């Protein structure tokens, strides 16, 4: 197991499916993909906070009508202290960029999960 794969596994407690699949193709490919994952989610001085990064990926998931990912990201947003107002603003921005039909499609599941998580 490559060093990046091991680092992701230790930090996250699991490996993203893409890393698992890449490693099955080639250990080097898996380690390279894990390195990309590690670089994207690294906290850097003066960079985006983990909450900001998750708000961004939530907006992208919503605007792409990827409801399953959007719902999963809500749990991460809760962990990083996002407020209901921040999530609502993000959903409205997703509606702006992705269109009202996508908003209609993802909002029911997202609102239900927000309720479950206590937002």
TrEMBL record:
Enzyme class name: lyase
Keywords attached to this entry: Lyase
Residues annotated as domain Carboxymuconolactone decarboxylase-like: 28-110
Pfam family, one: CMD
Gene Ontology terms, MF aspect: 4-carboxymuconolactone decarboxylase activity; peroxiredoxin activity
Organism: Methanosarcina lacustris Z-7289
Enzyme nomenclature, EC number: 4.1.1.44
InterPro entries assigned to the protein according to its UniProt record, in alphabetical order: AhpD-like, CMD-like
Lineage: Archaea, Methanobacteriati, Methanobacteriota, Stenosarchaea group, Methanomicrobia
Protein name: 4-carboxymuconolactone decarboxylase
Gene3D superfamilies the record matches: AhpD-like
Claim: Kinase is one of the keywords in the record: no
């Amino acid at each position: 197991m490559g060093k990046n794969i091991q680092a992701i596994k230790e930090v996250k407690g699991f490996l993203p499916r893409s890393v698992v699949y890449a490693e099955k193709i080639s250990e080097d490919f898996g380690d390279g993909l894990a390195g990309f994952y590690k670089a994207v989610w690294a906290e850097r001085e003066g960079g985006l906070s983990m909450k900001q990064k998750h708000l961004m990926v939530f907006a992208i998931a919503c605007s792409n009508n990827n409801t399953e990912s959007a719902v999963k990201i809500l749990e991460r947003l809760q962990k990083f202290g996002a407020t209901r107002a921040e999530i609502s603003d993000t959903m409205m921005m997703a509606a702006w960029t992705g269109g009202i039909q996508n908003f209609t499609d993802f909002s029911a599941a997202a609102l239900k999960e927000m309720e479950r998580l206590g937002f």
